[in-house]
């Protein structure tokens, strides 16, 4: 078999295309293999619009980067015709080995996408020896194309939360399908708050969904999120996930600790001790730190005890019981914990709990939570750290889709 025929088989070329020349440039590092592809003489080509066979009008020399041939970079060069269609005029044909507008073959792009799933884009770009900007363009093209085909006509419940896109107050809000166990991300958009909810409603409509079909939304206690949901999804039941209640009081405890540390010395290991709960396996050092905080009457210990009493609420077995326990928890804290400026974060958390008591209690009637989304946020942040950040918010959103959106089969 002739070498040109072997290479044609490797490229998957079919008539009328065939390899007519090959040159290995050994004066370059790495070496470069250049393959010249040409169609048979007097070949008719398909009109890219209607598919009608037409004669070539003129030709343009075009080159594409292909998968490496062994360790050598490989490029394909071809005279690509424009055809004159009686109905659509002069049009450039589509070559079978590359998509329109790309300077890479389809096989090269498939290999690139496989690498990007397994490693940071910058590392993948170094492996295939192209700039990360060019690789990002490939990734964004395929992710965007796949998202266009995403159908949301059966969506009835979604969750939303923000995740940091880079240092400072830069966020991306991520929306997930609460009924999808694998690859649940269906939308991500820059920013956080009311505007992101409106953007999701538009996205939902564009993809066959209906806001009136949404029965439940799970989110945190962000006033802007809740205001947006009330306006754009007024018929949906809004549930505040219990994770965010615990997070609210955990942050309050940590703020109290930082404020109290400025006024007096706290036991060694206090920071990590108060982030634990009494039912967990505390280390000997953590147990001693909590005991010392108790003996010295530290405000940090008082705040920690308030957080621990939340577990009594969490153990409610019904909606009625949950409402009763929430009411008594709030009353008990106000009655037994004396006010001090250092404890202000705890009372602020209590006021937030009072405002959203109904939405928090709704959790006992719900079969959904944002636990999956919180787990995904850790994956997104790990990917961001591994990549040492992304060029911009758009590339970060693209990676979120690649990691957790149901687009694999489409890609």
* Strand elements, count: 11
Determine the strand fraction and express it as a percent band.
15-25%
The tally of helices reads 15
In sequence order, what are the helices and strands, one letter per element?
A: HEEEEEEHHHEEEHEHEHHHHHHHHH
The end-to-end distance, rounded to whole angstroms, is: 35 Å
Looking at the structure, what is the overall shape? elongated
Uncertain residue ranges: none
Radius of gyration, in angstroms, nearest whole number: 30 Å
Helical content band:
40-55%
Plain-language structure description:
It is a single chain. This protein is α/β, with parallel strands linked by helices. Among the domains are: 3-103, no CATH class; 243-365. Helix content is 45%, strand content 21%. The chain contains 15 helices and eleven strands. The strands form two sheets. Strands 1, 2, 3, 4, 5 and 6 form a six-stranded mixed beta sheet that branches. α3 (121-128) crosses α4, α7 (242-261) runs antiparallel to α10 (299-314) and α11 runs antiparallel to α12. The radius of gyration is 30 Å and the shape is elongated.
Concise structural overview:
This protein is 45% helix and 21% strand. It is α/β, with parallel strands linked by helices. Among the domains are: 3-103, no CATH class; 243-365.
Main attributes?
single chain, 411 residues, 6-stranded mixed β-sheet, 5-stranded mixed β-sheet, 15 helices
Record the SSE blueprint.
Layout: H1 3-11, E1 17-25, E2 32-39, E3 44-46, E4 53-69, E5 72-85, E6 89-92, H2 106-118, H3 121-128, H4 132-148, E7 157-166, E8 170-177, E9 185-190, H5 194-206, E10 216-219, H6 223-232, E11 237-240, H7 242-261, H8 270-273, H9 284-295, H10 299-314, H11 319-336, H12 344-355, H13 357-361, H14 371-386, H15 393-404
Parallel strand pairs: 2-5, 7-10, 10-11
Antiparallel strand pairs: 1-2, 3-4, 4-5, 5-6, 7-8, 8-9
């Amino acid at each position: 078999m002739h070498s040109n025929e072997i290479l044609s088989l490797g490229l998957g070329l079919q008539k009328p295309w065939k390899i007519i020349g090959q040159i290995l440039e050994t004066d370059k590092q790495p070496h470069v293999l250049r393959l010249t592809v040409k169609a048979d003489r007097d070949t008719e080509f398909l009109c890219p619009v209607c598919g009608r066979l037409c004669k070539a009008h003129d030709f343009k020399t075009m080159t594409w980067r292909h998968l490496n041939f062994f360790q050598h970079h490989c490029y394909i060069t071809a005279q690509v015709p424009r055809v004159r269609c009686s109905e659509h005029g002069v049009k450039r044909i589509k070559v079978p080995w590359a998509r329109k507008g790309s300077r890479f073959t389809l096989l090269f792009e498939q290999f690139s996408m496989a690498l990007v799933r397994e490693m940071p884009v910058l590392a993948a770009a170094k492996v295939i020896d192209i700039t990360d900007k060019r690789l990002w363009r490939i990734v964004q093209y395929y992710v965007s194309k796949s998202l266009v085909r995403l159908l949301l006509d059966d969506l009835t419940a979604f969750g939303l939360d923000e995740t940091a896109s880079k240092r400072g107050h830069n966020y991306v809000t991520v929306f997930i399908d609460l009924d999808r166990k694998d690859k649940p991300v269906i939308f991500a958009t820059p920013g956080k708050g009311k505007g992101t909810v409106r953007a999701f409603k538009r996205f939902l409509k564009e993809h066959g969904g209906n806001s009136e079909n949404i029965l439940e939304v799970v989110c945190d206690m962000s006033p802007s999120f809740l205001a947006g949901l009330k306006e754009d999804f007024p018929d949906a039941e809004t549930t505040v996930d219990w994770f965010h209640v615990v997070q609210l009081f955990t942050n309050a405890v940590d703020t109290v600790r930082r404020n109290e540390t400025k006024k007096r010395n706290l036991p060694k290991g206090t920071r990590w001790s108060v982030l634990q709960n009494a039912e967990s396996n505390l280390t000997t050092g953590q147990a001693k730190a909590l005991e010392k905080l108790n003996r010295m009457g530290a405000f940090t210990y008082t705040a920690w005890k308030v957080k621990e009493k939340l577990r009594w609420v969490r153990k409610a077995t019904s909606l009625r019981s949950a409402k009763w326990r929430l009411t008594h928890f709030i009353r008990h804290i106000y009655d037994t914990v004396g006010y001090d400026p250092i404890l202000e974060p705890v009372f602020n958390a209590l006021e937030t709990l009072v405002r959203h008591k109904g939405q928090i209690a709704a959790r006992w009637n719900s079969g959904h939570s944002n636990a999956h989304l919180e787990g995904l946020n850790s994956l997104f942040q790990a990917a961001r750290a591994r990549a040492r950040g992304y060029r911009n918010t758009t590339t970060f959103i693209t990676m979120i889709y690649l990691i957790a959106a149901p687009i694999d089969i489409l890609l």
